[in-house]
């Protein structure tokens, strides 16, 4: 069975963007220019969650990658790396009975985003 990530050397997917310099450790929070290596704070949290899940034996990197790659091809190709990881986590957790309703998870994320935006606007929270 072919999966959306199995492009087998096909051309036309564009250049790789956002890679770290070869001498920069992947765990660094900031690049050589002092800017965050994460496109957004939530991406850093996803990276940390991947580490926690693996360390605690919830799922392996291979299991998570498999769950990511079982996405609908259109969804897979239209999503960023971290969006695919989150979708894979949701899929894997639902299959294992760890999540009963990802809508609740999405609603919680939307609420947290709105809270952070409000805190940032009034100067009371972290950005």
Give an account of the 3D structure:
The protein has helices at residues 41-55, 61-69, 73-78, 81-95, 102-122. By secondary structure, it is mostly helical. Helix 2 packs across helix 4 (81-95). The radius of gyration is 17 Å and the shape is globular. The N and C termini lie far apart (43 Å). The model has no long low-confidence stretch (mean pLDDT 75).
Q: Briefly, what is this?
A:
By secondary structure, this protein is an all-alpha fold.
- How many β-strand runs? 0
Helix percentage range? 40-55%
What is the chain-wise order of helices and strands? HHHHH
Task: Give the overall silhouette.
Answer: globular
Which key phrases capture this entry?
mainly alpha; 127 residues; 5 helices
Q: How are the secondary structure elements laid out?
A:
Blueprint: H1 41-55, H2 61-69, H3 73-78, H4 81-95, H5 102-122
Helix pairs in contact: 2-4
